[in-house]
Amino acid sequence: MVTASRPDLTQPAAKPSEIVIRTDDIHKYYELGETRVHALRGVSIEIRAGEFVAIMGASGSGKSTFMNILGCLDKPSSGEYLLDGIAVSKLSKNELAHIRNQKIGFVFQGFNLLSRTTALENVELPTLYAHISRAEGQTRAQDALKLVGLGERMLHFPSQLSGGQQQRVAIARALVNQPSLLLADEPTGNLDSRTSIEIMDVLQKLNAKGLTIVLVTHEPDIATFAKRTIQFRDGKIRQDELVADRPVAAEVLRQMPVLED
C-alpha cells in the first residue's frame, strides 16, 4: 500500500512523488425510472502529492460527480478509486466517514460557518469529531488561522468578517485535522475579483508548503492559478494539461488597485 505522508505546512514542500489520487476506469450512472443517466464514462487519472489541479467543465459535464467521489461523498458504479493507496469503494460508511475526517479537507462555495461561534471555535470543530483533546484542538485551530492570515481575528464572529475572511476561516477549518488532500468546490464563487485572487494566494502558498489541492471552478481565470487543469465534457476527461505561464496570485494582487468602500 502506498501512503502519502501528511504535509507539515510549516515547512517547505517535499519533492512530490507518491500518488494521492488514482482512479481506474470510473463509471457513475443513476437510474431515473427506466432511464440510466451516465455522469462519468471511464475516468482514469493520477494526482501526485503536492499537485494543484483545477477541474473545469460545463454544467452536466461530470466534474461535480467526480469531485463527490474524490471526497468520499459518493461511490463509483464501477471502476476503482484509491486515496493514499486505499481502495475507497470497498470501505464501509463508518470507514468512509473516518477517511473524510482524517485525510480530506473540504472548502465549499458557501462558507458554512456557524454564526454564533467565533472563528476559532468554527475551526476547532472538526477536531472534536476526530477525538483530539481540547487543548490540542485549540492549538491546531490557532495555528491554522495564523496560517491563512487571520491571527488577529480569532475571536471574531462570522458577521464581523468580510466574505474573504470567512472563506479563510473555512480554509483553516479544512486544514485543522492536517489532511493530505484539500478539495475546494468553487471556493471563489461568492467573492469579488480581488477577494477571489486573495483566496487563490492562500491556496498557492499552502500548495507551496506541500498540500495537494484539487479545485473545481467554472472560471478560467481562477483555473490558471493551478499547476494543472483537467477539462470534463460528457462524463469524460477531454483535456489534461499543465498550466503554461501560471500567474502568482501575490504578484497579481500587488498590481491591482485597492477599491475604496
**How many strand segments?**
10
* CATH level 4 superfamily of the domain at 51-73 and 105-255: P-loop containing nucleotide triphosphate hydrolases
- Unreliable stretches covering 5 or more consecutive residues: 1-6, 10-15
What summary fits the major beta sheet? Answer: 6 strands, mixed
- Helix content class: 25-40%
Instruction: Indicate the overall shape.
Output: globular
Number of helices: 8
- Mean pLDDT across residues: 90
Report Rg.
18 Å
Query: What is the CATH first-level class name of the domain at 51-73 and 105-255?
Result: Alpha Beta
End-to-end separation in angstroms reads 54 Å
Strands ordered across the widest β-sheet = 6-7-8-3-9-10
CATH architecture identity of the domain at 51-73 and 105-255: 3-Layer(aba) Sandwich
- Strand percentage, roughly? 25-35%
Your description of this structure?
It is a single chain. With 261 residues, this protein is of the alpha/beta class. The chain has 8 helices and 10 strands. The strands form 2 sheets. A 6-stranded mixed sheet has the order 6-7-8-3-9-10. The protein starts with 18 loop residues before the first strand and ends in a 6-residue tail after the last helix.
